Amino acid sequence: MTTTHAQRWHPYCGEAPGPAHWLAHWNWDWVLLGSLAVLLLFGFKASRATMRSQLAATACMVILFVTPLCALGSALFLARSIHHLALALVLAPLLVGAVGARAFPNVSLGLATVVQTAILWAWHVPASYAQAMSNDLVFWAMQVSITLSAAAWWVSVRRATALGAAAGLLAQMVQMGVLGALLVFAGRALYAPHWLTTTLWGLTALEDQQVAGLVMWVGGGGAYLLLAMAMLWRALGADARPLPASRPA
């Protein structure tokens, strides 16, 4: 792994920063900022029902793509994994609230789960990830596909019964746990763009990958588990409600 090898990577969020300067690495891409400004304008003009979701979605995108968190993802696979979890667990449901469920196809929860899982896993194939970290168009294809597939999945969850939604959430917990476990126990660093960018942060590339895997396994899987438990609680609570008393004849 030579310096020349490291210089092959030109991430959209900029070169990998060190801990001393990463807070100064903001993303001033005028196309992105202009797009966010338009979204913000539409947010203020939206009805009250959607305004909060639109403004929250815009704020989430600013945090993920404009603040130094974006550049941190060039240095640490851990930061990029947190970024992907935020796309699926935070931005995607906010997007559904902002544009409405009708904007997404009406597909079964099973199909939506398979599609989202396939897309997430495809972008964690080392070759695909490397392409996304060296080509802006591929990077945005990754961001958009993860977000939209997750948004369509959330719409399917909302349309499902409580038990069906809980099953879908548990399926996501399992796939997230398996992906995280594979990263933890891989035994070698899989992602070339981070082979030389983690040492300034006090981590080897393998340690960075292992911590990222734990975050996906415990953090991501745990979030889906808690939501599944909430759904099951709601379903059991609905079943346990007493029937309304019949009126006397």
Features:
249 residues, mainly alpha, 10 helices, transmembrane helix, cell membrane
Radius of gyration, rounded? 20 Å
Report the sheet-strand fraction. Answer: under 5%
Helix content: 55-70%
Shape by Cα distribution: globular
The tally of structural domains comes to 1
Number of helices: 10
Low-confidence runs (pLDDT<50, min 5 residues)? 1-7, 245-249
What is the string of helix and strand elements?
HHHHHHHHHH
Arithmetic mean of pLDDT: 90
Distance between the termini: 86 Å
Structural class: mainly alpha
Main sheet characteristics: none
By DSSP, the count of extended strands is: 0
Membrane topology: Multi-pass membrane protein
Main location: membrane
Transmembrane segments: 26-44, 56-76, 82-100, 107-125, 137-157, 169-191, 211-233
Keywords: Cell membrane, Membrane, Transmembrane, Transmembrane helix
Describe the 3D structure:
- The protein has one domain (15-236).
- The chain is 70% helix and 0% strand.
- It is built from 10 helices and no strands.
- It has helices at 3-6, 30-45, 48-65, 68-75, 77-99, 109-123, 126-132, 136-159, 162-184, 205-240.
- Helix 2 (30-45) runs antiparallel to helix 3 (48-65).
- The radius of gyration is 20 Å and the shape is globular.
